[in-house]
Specification:
CATH topology: MetI-like fold
Helix content: over 70%
Oligomer: single chain
Radius of gyration: 23 Å
CATH architecture: Orthogonal Bundle
Number of strands: 0
Structural class: mainly alpha
Length: about 280
């Protein structure tokens, strides 16, 4: 009986916490259907018959930026970066764990340490290095994201590799598999939960990232991701912010990542739990 009451109170508590986190998104959605004066005057109010403008804000927002090109660039950057992070860091984590030498342990701790380094420490030298190395396009910036995303990914993959019995890999090698075949045919399928977890976390970060693409991408060639395009086009020639179009574009920007997260969120817990178990 006591446990039921505790569970009931915990349910209420977490429901309130969820409502607090969801409320800003609800306000954003409502404001995307309101006229500008209503947004500035009654930010938290519901759309009324006088303030409701339908999809006018969305159409005006799409026309104000090169929306579809920006979506394409964001997809190229996100998909390319996540794919590169997944393949490179999973192979690295597997190698570091299975070799287990002092050098490998030292490299692993460097990956872990990189998660504690603030981005502000490198943001001033990053544009110069990216320009010198030619990493200023949507097709090359994934190499930059690989460097910044490798720490967390290697940490998560290493935790999972420890739970994989080495006897499975030894059996594959006895059957004639070389190290690459062993990894891609045996280890990689077993690591699927962590792959999905890392993919979700990295996708949410890269899709919504504004600062790093702004510093690295060559804007003179029209390389604008969705966050960059929204930031650069929400004001008119007088510096006045079009809040209606701004809210509408924000809603359009977060819809893909919200849908992606909703479809795959269970895999995060599954991957973290699997990575926490040591064999």
């Amino acid at each position: 009986m006591i446990e039921k009451k505790q569970n009931r109170w915990l349910t209420v508590l977490f429901s309130v916490i969820c409502a607090v986190y969801i409320y800003p998104l609800v306000v954003l959605l409502f404001n995307s259907f309101k006229e500008k004066e209503a947004i500035t005057g009654q930010v938290f109010g519901l759309p009324t018959a006088q303030s409701f403008v339908g999809f006018e804000n969305y159409l005006r927002g799409i026309r104000s930026i090169d929306f579809f090109n920006s979506v394409g660039y964001s997809l190229v950057v996100t998909v390319g970066s996540v794919a590169l992070i997944l393949v490179c860091t999973s192979m690295c984590a597997w190698y570091l764990n299975r070799v287990g030498s002092r050098w490998c342990k030292g490299i692993y701790y460097l990956f872990v340490f990189s998660m504690a380094v603030p981005f502000q420490m490198v943001m001033f030298t990053l544009p110069y290095l990216a320009d010198r190395l030619g990493f200023t396009s949507p097709w090359t910036i994934p190499l930059v994201y690989l460097g910044f995303g490798a720490g967390l990914a290697v940490f998560m993959f290493t935790g999972f590799v420890k739970s994989i019995p080495i006897s499975i890999e030894e059996a594959a090698m006895i059957d004639g598999c070389n190290p690459l075949s062993t990894f891609f045919r045996v280890v990689l399928p077993i690591m699927k939960p962590t792959y999905i977890s890392v993919a979700i976390l990295q996708t949410m970060w890269i899709w919504n990232d504004y600062l790093l693409p702004t510093l690295v991408l060559d804007k003179t060639k029209g390389y604008y991701t969705i966050p960059m395009a929204i930031q650069s086009a929400v004001t008119d020639s007088y510096g006045t912010v079009d809040y209606g179009a701004f809210m509408a574009l924000l809603v359009l920007a977060i819809i893909p990542i919200v849908v992606f997260y909703a479809l795959a969120q269970k895999q995060i817990i599954r991957g973290v739990i699997s990575g926490a178990v040591k064999g």
